[in-house]
Amino acid sequence: MDKLTLALVAHDAKKDDMARFAAMHEATLRPFAIFATGTTGARVMEHCPTLSVTRLKSGPLGGDQQIGAMIADGKIDALFFFVDPLSPHPHDVDVKALMRLALVYDIPMALNPATAERLIETFKAHIAQEA
Ligand SMILES: O=C(CO)COP(=O)(O)O
Fold first, then answer.
1. Is residue 109 part of a domain?
2. Which of 41, 75, 78, 113 is the most buried (most CB within 10 A)?
3. What domain count does the chain have?
């Protein structure tokens, strides 16, 4: 089976949650190819030294769009996007475009930690199947 590719993205107020989530599931995430927007990727790598994360541009500078383009190209198998619903974002159109493409291409998308915890369980099953 091909290596699955995951995308990690978090708004500033949710980066602690993303770092915690990635650290808690570091062993599960290790076999996957991981792409992240710039600052999210830096935080994840800080907390998870054994993960290899490809960092794209920061979200407001085009990172969300880069991940969206990867989704459109069929290169992302699941999106973990911890969204802050309480703050305005200068690149809100990009945020919406990223979520929209995940919907258009029907890839699993976790927008909060509660959903991410459930989605990651399905990847544990995938790893077990491969072993
Ligand atoms: O802005 C983002 C998502 O919309 C995330 O970008 P950073 O990970 O670079 O902060």
1. yes
2. 41
3. 1
State phi, psi for 89 to the nearest 5 degrees.
Answer: -125, 130
List, by residue number, the catalytic residues: 64
Position 1 scores a pLDDT of 56
Residues with CB under 6 A from ligand 1: 9, 11, 37-40, 58-60, 63-64, 95
| Predicted ipTM > 0.90 | yes
What is the C-alpha separation between 8 and 90, in angstroms, rounded?
A: 20
Mean pLDDT for the stretch of residues 47-66: 97
Supply the Cα-derived Rg of the chain in whole angstroms.
14
CA 75 to chain centre: 13
- CATH number at 17 reads 3.40.50.1380
- CA 131 – ligand 1 centroid, Å: 34
Domain extent for 12: 5-121
